[in-house]
Design goal:
Strand order of the largest sheet: 10-12-6-16-8-14
Order of helices and strands: HEEEEHEEEEEEEEEEHEEE
Number of domains: 2
Number of helices: 3
Low-confidence stretches: none
Structural class: mainly beta
Length: 223
C-alpha cells in the first residue's frame, strides 16, 4: 500500500466517524470553536430561540473593546457666515482613525471636512474626547491644536488662516442631515496620520440650531 493510498483511507475513515449519529444526531460540526485571544479558544454558540448565529459589526466591536470615541459641539444660533468647527491633529502612528461625522442644522448650511488647513492664532476652546465604553479608561490619541496641544482633546472654534484640501462637502439643513445613513461605508473616512483636520458646519441662513458629532475608532491594520 502506497503512502497516498493510506492517506485516502484515513481521510475516509475520519469522514465516516464525523457522520456517525450520536444520540440520533450527526456529530459533524456539532461544535465549532473560535479564538478569543492569541492563545485561547471557546465554543461558538447560536441563539437558542432562532438557532441563528449572532454577530456584531466591527465598528460595534470596537465600542466593546474600548477603542471607540466621540466628541460633539453645538450652536443654538448659527447665523449666515457663522461656523461651528471641530479641529484636531491625528497622531503620527499607524493606529488610524476611522471616522464618521454627523451634522445637523435647522437652517440651510454647508458641511465640510478640510484636510491639512492652517490654524491661526485663535485656537478656540479645548474639549475632552469621550470613550464610548464608559467602563474602560483608555483614551484617544487625537491631539488638540492649542498653543500647548493636549492628547485626548480637540479644539472647538479654531480660526483657520488657510484652507486645506476639502475631502467632503455637502449642503445640509431644513430636514437634510449628514452622516445619518445606515451604511457606514458611505460616510466613513480613514484619516491620514499626523495631519490636522477641520470639520465644520457653515451657516447659509440665520437662526440655525446646529450640532456636530464625530464618532471614530482607532485601529492598526493587521497586514
Amino acid at each position: 500500500m502506497t503512502k497516498k493510498e493510506l492517506i485516502i483511507i484515513l481521510v475516509c475513515f475520519v469522514a465516516v466517524l464525523l457522520f456517525i449519529p450520536i444520540n440520533g444526531e450527526s456529530s459533524y460540526f456539532k461544535v465549532i470553536y473560535g479564538m478569543i485571544s492569541d492563545t485561547e479558544s471557546a465554543a461558538i454558540r447560536i441563539d437558542p430561540s432562532t438557532h441563528s448565529m449572532q454577530t456584531i459589526a466591527y465598528a460595534h466591536h470596537e465600542i466593546h473593546a474600548g477603542s471607540s470615541y466621540t466628541i460633539w459641539a453645538t450652536d443654538a444660533d448659527l447665523d449666515i457666515g457663522d461656523t461651528l468647527k471641530i479641529v484636531f491633529t491625528t497622531p503620527n502612528t499607524t493606529k488610524w482613525l476611522h471616522m464618521l461625522s454627523v451634522a445637523r442644522n435647522s437652517s440651510a448650511s454647508t458641511f465640510q471636512i478640510q484636510e491639512a488647513p492652517t490654524v491661526g492664532a485663535a485656537k478656540g476652546t479645548e474639549s475632552l474626547v469621550m470613550n464610548r465604553n464608559r467602563n474602560v479608561a483608555d483614551t484617544s490619541a487625537v491631539i488638540s491644536v492649542a498653543a500647548s496641544p493636549l492628547i485626548n482633546k480637540v479644539s472647538v472654534g479654531s480660526a483657520l488662516t488657510a484652507a486645506g484640501t476639502i475631502i467632503d462637502q455637502e449642503t445640509i439643513g431644513v430636514g437634510k442631515d449628514k452622516g445619518t445613513s445606515a451604511s457606514r461605508g458611505l460616510d466613513e473616512f480613514i484619516l491620514k496620520q499626523s495631519t490636522t483636520y477641520a470639520i465644520s458646519i457653515i451657516g447659509l441662513a440665520d437662526n440655525g440650531n446646529a450640532s456636530l458629532k464625530l464618532d471614530w475608532y482607532e485601529h492598526t491594520d493587521k497586514d
